[in-house]
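User: Predict the full complex structure for these chains.
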Amino acid sequence: MPSAFQSVSDSVFEISKQGSMRVPARIFATKKLLDGIDGNAIDQLKNMATLPGIQKYAIGHGDMHSGYGFCIGGVAAFDPKENGIISPGGIGFDINCGVRLVKTNLTLKEAKPKLKELIDVLFREIPAGVGGKGKLRVEQGELREVLEEGAEWSIRKGLGVKADLQCTEEGGKMKEADADTVSSKALQRGMPQIATLGSGNHFLEIQEVREIFEPEIAKTFGLEKGQIVIMLHSGSRGFGHQVATDYLDVMLSAMQKYKIDVPDRQLACAPIESEEGKKYFSAMACAVNFAFANRQSMTHWIREGFENVFHQTAEELQMDLLYDVCHNIAKFEEHKIDGKNRKVLVHRKGATRAMPAGRKENPSLFEKTGHPALLPGSMGTASFVLVGTEKGLEESFGSVAHGAGRVMSRHGAMRQKTGEQVLKELEAKGEIIRSTSMKGLAEEMPEAYKDIEEVALSIERSGIGKKVAKMVPLAVTKG
Amino acid sequence: MPFRVLEKDSAADIALEASAPSLAMLFGECALGVENQMADIATLARSRSVSFSLSAPEPEKLLFQFLNELLFFKDAQQLLFGKISVQIDEKGGKWTLTAKCWGEKINPKKHELLNDVKACTFHGLSVQKQGKNWKARVLLDV
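Assistant: Here is the predicted structure of the two-chain assembly.
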C-alpha cells in the first residue's frame, strides 16, 4: 500500500489533509486496485481536494486513473455557500458520457442463431468511428431544441417511447439548459453527430445476463438469468467536447477575476454562483441533453434492428429501457454534511450516480430499490448492474465507479498485440466483434483495463453499492 | 517525425511531445501529431484546404486554441489534414497565428482511421524555448 494512505477499512483508504488540501482524499478500492493506481492519479486526487468549497472528501473510485484536472473515477462536491466552484475539468470533455441498458425477452438460445446478422445490422445502422456522421439531418434551429429538450426531442421525433424518459437519469432532460450559452462552433460540431456512437471505449454490446446476485431487486428491474440485453456507451460527441473547450478558456480568465489559484490549469474553475459558473452549468446541461438525445436516438435504431432480424415488434420483444446513467456530469443534489442537509454541486468525472431507495431522484418504479447503476466492463469482459446504498450516499455522495479504468497506454497496447490478434482471441471465446478500426481494437484489448470483477468487488466490500446482476458479452460494435 | 507519443504519461489519453527550430514549425509539428492520432496522414489527399487566424495572449493558449480548431474541422466538416503551414507573429503581448491546412473529407473506405480525438487539454501543456529549439508537450483527450 502506498505510504501516503491510511486504511479506514479493507476497501476504503484515506490520505489525510496535507499541504493545501482543504479536505482529506478517500479511495474506495480493494488493496489490489489501490496498489495499481498510478502516482499521477493520486496527485490529481490531492489537487481536487484543494478546490474552494469542497465538502467531506475528494473521492476516487476503484477504477481511477490519471486524466486531466480531476482524475478519472473522481467525485467531489462543492457548496455554493462556501464559494464552492464548478470546473469543466471535473466533468470532462465528453459531457454526459454515459451508459444505458435495454432489455429484451429473448434468451441466448433464441438470439444465438441470429447474432451475426443482428450485429451486422446494428454496425451498419449506427454510425461509429472518427468524425462519424449521423443519419439525422438537424439544422441549427432544431439543434437548439435538442439542447433544451434532450431525450424528449428524440421521443417527439418518434425515436422512442415516453416510458424511456422515466428510466433515464434526469428524465432525459436537464431543465437548466440554455442554448444561448453555447457557441456557434459547438452547434456546428454537434449538427452532424446526433445518433453516432463515437470511438475509443464507446460501444454497443449485446449481452447475456449470466448471474443474479439480488433476486428481489433483479425482479423489480425485470432482469433474469439467461436474458439478452443491450448495453450502449456513448456521450455528447463533438458538441460536448466543444462546450468543454470553450468554457475551459472562459474559466482560465475567470480565475484571475475571482483570484482563484489551482495547481493544474485543467482544474480551471469559477464560483458556482458567478456569471461564468452559471453560464457553464447551462452550457453543460445543453451537452447533457445532447448526449441523452444521442443515446435515445440510437436506442430507436437498436430496436429497429432487432425488429428487422426477429420479425417481431420492439413491444413484442419487450425492449424496455432499464436505465440510462451519466458518468461525466455535475448536478445539484442534497446531501447530509455535518448532520445537516445541504445543497451541493456534485462533480462526477468517470463516476456513476447510485442513489439508494427512498431518494427523490429515483423514478417511482425504483422507489424501493434505488435506480440501477451500470458498470460496463471493457471489451470481452463482464458488465454489472448495481444499486446504491445508504452507506454510499453517506460516504461517496451516492456515487460508484463507472467502468474498468485503463492500466496500459493506447500505444503500449498496440505494441503488445495487433487488432487482428485481439479479434482472433475474442472470436475464439465466441464473441462477435465489429469495429471501424483494427488499431482501435488493439488499443481497447481487455488487458489494457483493470479487472472489472475487482472493481465490482471494491464497490461491494466498501459498502457503497451492491451487485444485482452480471452480464457477459456476446457481440459488440466499436468505433 | 519531429513529434512523438509519450507513452508513460497517460494510460487513457495521448501525450505528445514535439520540437522544432521555430515556434511556427513547432505548432505545425504538433498539428500533424494530432492529425496522425486520428488517421494515417499518409493516406490523406490534399484536395481541400482551409485557412484561419487565431490570437491569444500567450503561446500555450494559442497552441490550445489551434489544436482544438483542427478538431472542430474534424467534426463540423469531417476534414482531416495531412499538410499544415503555420505563421506566428507576436506584437505587444498578442500572439497571432495564421494557418493553412490541406487534407480531405474523412472516408473510412480509403483512410486508415484511428482515434477520435475529443480535445487538446490544458493538462501539462507547455511551449518552451530550449536552446536553439522550441519544444511543446500536449495531452489529448481520446
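The first helix of chain B runs from residue 23 to 38.
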